[in-house]
Amino acid sequence: MASSSSTSTPLLYACIAHNSTILAEHTTSAASNASSLASLILPKIEHATPQKLTYTHKENFVHYIASAPSEYPSSPSAGGLTFLVVAASSAGRRIPFGFLVEIKNRFIKQFPVDSTDFASLPNYGAGSFNAELKKLMIDYGTTKAGKEDAISNVQAEIDNVREIMTQNIDQVLARGERIDLLVDKTDRLGGSAHEFRVRSKTLRRQMWWKNIKLMVLLTVVIIFLIYLFVGFGCGLPGWSKCVGRG
């Protein structure tokens, strides 16, 4: 499960995944839909070749570094790793990519590729790295030293950050379906499930009361019919046949 914090930083959500399996993640903005954006992007990422890519979506950018098996000939499972961050557009690209370079280096140091089968790890199988994500997201997003380290990482790792491919996030989705509509659908689905539970409970209560009323009415009808049956036999309306004469 994702850890979260409320510290104000333009780095809103970060995760490390193997293909579409999230191994570690942290969110600094629980109210945003940043994790929803990531869950839509991860299944679309290919690992045939190493990638550094930015997707744009309104005021947020999704940046990621995707590994490929060619980078790790002796440990092909490491080729399925993706290091992803959702950041506010105000953060630019140098700071987010510098952050990604740093978490990649630290993650591989903590989980060496030669001794870790990333393909066998379950969801949140590297959850011990969550705290490191949190610390780096705050440092690189809010402190001057962290931002300088991020820029330094980019300059050392990437020859020209402008060469990083940038696409609108809508282009990655099948059938041209807009991501904001997909996120809205997810939110509505959760709301609809809650409304369905409430309506079901209300309906059960209404049906129970309806059954009770029906049983009461049926009882009254049966008593009335018995009254009529006995009454006709006793000579209604005076009950002369059944009431003794003085």
In brief, what are we looking at here?
The chain is 43% helix and 17% strand. The protein has 246 residues and is α/β, with parallel strands linked by helices.
Rough shape?
rod-shaped
**Uncertain segments of ≥5 residues (pLDDT<50)?**
159-163, 173-184
Number of beta-strand segments: 7
The share of residues in extended strands comes to: 15-25%
Reconstruct the topology from this structure.
Blueprint: E1 3-4, E2 11-18, E3 21-27, H1 34-41, E4 51-57, E5 60-66, E6 81-88, H2 94-110, H3 130-142, H4 144-157, E7 165-168, H5 179-233
Parallel strand pairs: 1-3, 4-7
Antiparallel strand pairs: 2-3, 2-6, 4-5, 5-6
Polypeptide structure, described:
By secondary structure, this protein is an alpha/beta fold. It has helices at 34-41, 94-110, 130-142, 144-157, 179-233, and strands at 3-4, 11-18, 21-27, 51-57, 60-66, 81-88, 165-168. The chain has a seven-stranded mixed β-sheet with strand order 1-3-2-6-5-4-7, with helices on both faces. A hairpin with a 2-residue loop joins strand 2 and strand 3 (21-27). Helix 2 runs antiparallel to helix 3, helix 2 (94-110) packs across helix 4 and helix 3 crosses helix 4 (144-157). The chain is rod-shaped and about 110 Å long. It starts with a strand and ends in a 13-residue tail after the last helix.
Task: Looking at this protein, list some descriptive labels.
single chain; 246 residues; rod-shaped
